[in-house]
Amino acid sequence: MGQMAHMPLTDAKQTDALVAKLAAREANINLPNLLTFSRLLLIPIFVLLFSQPTPDRSMAAAAVFGIAAITDLLDGYLARRRSEVTRLGRLLDPIADKLLVLSGVILLVGFQRVSAVVAILMIGREVAVTGVRAIAAAEGIVLSAETTGKYKMTAQVLAILFLIMAESVDPTWNFSTIGNVLLYSALMLGLISGTQYLVTFWREISLKGL
Fold first, then answer.
1. In whole angstroms, what is the distance from residue 126 CA to residue 133 CA?
2. Which of 75, 103, 187, 210 is 20 to 30 A away from residue 37, measured at CA?
3. CB 167 within 8 A of CB 53
4. Domain for residue 112, yes or no?
5. What is the pLDDT of residues 6-16, one digit of tens each?
């Protein structure tokens, strides 16, 4: 009798777990997450176009890069506006951002439009911040995005766009100079925001006594 009474309860728990899993899966299929996925899909297209930077291919690559960057603005805005913020979105969005920016920077280094030192510092910053945020999340600490970091992302995107198009437009437009100024500005903002993350992380773990 005890076993028979227990079976419906077990089945009910399993059913509830299955319903919750299906609901979470459906919640992940929303417009903001689809925009994030589209950004990931645009990255190899951008790389393919810019791998041989003829004037026409460079302009096409810049267009793809620009569209991918716009999806970054839209997915976060729509997720908050439509109350569709999901764990999957919070995971994929920064990954897509980093892959987009770093793929552009690495290609530009290969074409000698960006200093290798600048690229190393940018990649090092991203790795360090990602590591700190992962450790913080494991300890239950939420490190919100710094405003400086958002300005950094904007400057990076604009810098890469200018540098991609630098050899496809009239040299008197000084796209190369503008792009490098923006890139160095983005690097400084990135180092500042990275330091802010480290300070916040250290303060939080000190409060928790870790």
1. 11
2. 187
3. yes
4. yes
5. 545 565 555 55
